[in-house]
Design goal:
2 copies of one chain form a homodimer. The first copy, chain A, is mainly alpha-helical. The first copy, chain A, is built from 11 helices and 5 strands, in the order H-E-H-H-E-E-E-H-H-H-H-H-H-H-H-E. Helix content of chain A is 64%, strand content 5%. In chain A, strand 2 (67-69) and strand 3 (75-77) form a beta hairpin. In chain A, helix 4 (82-106) packs across helix 6, helix 4 runs antiparallel to helix 10 (211-232) and helix 5 packs antiparallel against helix 6. The two termini of chain A are 32 Å apart. Chain A binds a DNA duplex (30 and 30 nucleotides) through helix 3.
Chain lengths: 254, 254
Amino acid sequence: MVVAVELEADRSGSQTVRAQLAIRDLVLTGTLTPGERISELSMVARIGVSRTPVRAALLRLADEGLLEPLRSGGFAIKAFTDREVLESIEIRGVLEGLAARLAAERGVALTAIAPLRRCLAELDEVVGETGASVEVFSEYVALNARFHALLVELADSRPLERQIERAITLPFASPSAFVMAQSTMPEARRILTIAQDHHRCVLDAIEQREGSRAESLMREHSRLASRNLALALRSQSTFDLVPGSALIRTGSIA
Amino acid sequence: MVVAVELEADRSGSQTVRAQLAIRDLVLTGTLTPGERISELSMVARIGVSRTPVRAALLRLADEGLLEPLRSGGFAIKAFTDREVLESIEIRGVLEGLAARLAAERGVALTAIAPLRRCLAELDEVVGETGASVEVFSEYVALNARFHALLVELADSRPLERQIERAITLPFASPSAFVMAQSTMPEARRILTIAQDHHRCVLDAIEQREGSRAESLMREHSRLASRNLALALRSQSTFDLVPGSALIRTGSIA
DNA sequence: CTCCGTATTCCTGTATACAAAGGGAATACG
DNA sequence: CGTATTCCCTTTGTATACAGGAATACGGAG
């Protein structure tokens, strides 16, 4: 009866985080369909830990926004409209804009901005690559994520870090959510070039303490993601490349 | 041994929310001092529920940001610097600014804005009161909270609602956090007048679909809270009036 | 054939038992 | 006298047992 497929050495310290990771994967990969109720026992059977950590994991995922509490108790997998995805991206943009502005207004030491410059240079290399292979794009994803993380650090604000971390927990709201989807599109290279220019200009703005400019740039930068969402929605195969796409229910695509 | 003082009819549906409310109160009132570790058993003794709901409550409060997880397990009461308080207010301002802008850009029906107008009128009455009694201010607090809540609703964005709700969970970041502290200050009436004008102008901006103006106004509006914080820090007795002040450790005030 | 009442079954919320790990204090050794 | 070590106690993480309640399925009646 109990088919424990997921025994693959999830040697994460605690049972709770193991459960959290496992369930999150189940949700994100679409194994569990949106709207479906999640019973604790089924998770116990699947993951192989007791109800207590499963329960903790569900609670955690509900705060993250992947699940929604049911009034009769328990949780269901949340479904997102494309509009909500857009709004989530906008929120991220606004918060990252605040981060950039704070960094600019307060001023940052050159030693603090150096890692950003290095990251920028590495991104330049990746964008400069002639071949548009999948490897190139996944390398871009990694570097891009690091760039954004470093930028938030630059603001040096714990509360803001927390809030942004929360905002990008929704996988389709993260800075690199649509990059992989881009990889299949003809305009891919152009978009990457523009995004990279945003990165460069933001660093310049921060260095020269142009707070307002830094903020506007980050907002506009997030708009690239919005545009990519629209592009990705054109075909199912492209759409499937964005993380957490299983949670998004659109009118046009089944 | 077990002195269950808090038996005062906390008839909240579940034990978990009861524990959550009780512990939050303990933290906010300063009964538990910042930095102090919270042991589950001590909460069990105090509140009178078992470890399971206490544990759930602690987890919840940690996500809310009132507690911070310890690497050795368990939680400690988080302490906030005045700078972090300022940043939290700034975050709220930015998010409420986004809400106002979204409402303005999308356009709202007059039926939707009517409750805001009514709330505005009621606020006018309160601000117009001649006596500056405590009752007046606490009435202002209630109406002000409602106004801000309605404004967020106007944006009609679930993700944004969630994010803002999270932002104002920190009690000193809520829109009315410093109003009661104001009540003891001579410039109180003037500040209320200005705040109320912000409210009025934001509604006008939204009605006329002036997104950028609506956003700027809400940001500036939140700056009133920042200024009030600076004012409130001048004396201990004033400072004590702000909710959650026990969590804030400042250089100047013990 | 359909609708309603009832009983059963599953599920969550809560409490408790158990084990491992961390912290602290006392003691022994250098 | 200072330092390191060891032991004990406290605390958390995890598992399980129990009770109340909701959803469902089944059976009977109209």
